[in-house]
Amino acid sequence: xxxxxxxxxxxxxxxxxxxxxxxxxxxxxxxxxxxxxxxxxxxxxxxxxxxxxxxxxxxxxxxxxxxxxxxxxxxxxxxxxxxxxxxxxxxxxxxxxxxxxxxxxxxxxxxxxxxxxxxxxxxxxxxxxxxxxxxxxxxxxxxxxxxxxxxxxxxxxxxxxxxxxxxxxxxxxxxxxxxxxxxxxxxxxxxxxxxxxx
Length: 198
Description:
It contains eight helices and ten strands. It is an alpha/beta fold. Helix 3 (88-96) runs antiparallel to helix 8.
């Protein structure tokens, strides 16, 4: 069974799965750096993950999309990831992004706010990787900052909120930069993070 959303999806065979980038690399969206919206997806993957346990593939797909958006953000001294400490998204972000990457399930967490305030004069991070509530991420990021929107169906801010706070939203455009940089050891760490606590 193959499940594709855009040109990046999960191919499952039995209990194993691959995260597969099927973009052609040559159509107009691919040439513009937006291979997730490839017009001519290939039948075979251009880049993929190693074989992964099928039960964690959806969580790893979401993590790869989040980090793909994050790689388009400017370098930041502090990046916030909405999620629990040790999540697959946090593991991949820390592997691929320079600077401090902090995480908390809520952007209003007092401990998180204190950590950011100790690092940033404004008391706010320059980049936030949003969860399902992009609106809260826009309110939490510093003015002129960037919010990474890894998936669809999130609660979005109004245009007025974006303009008033001068925030730029970043959606994933190309996953190949993530897939190509991760080693087998990196994938093993992400798989361990994606597994629910026993």
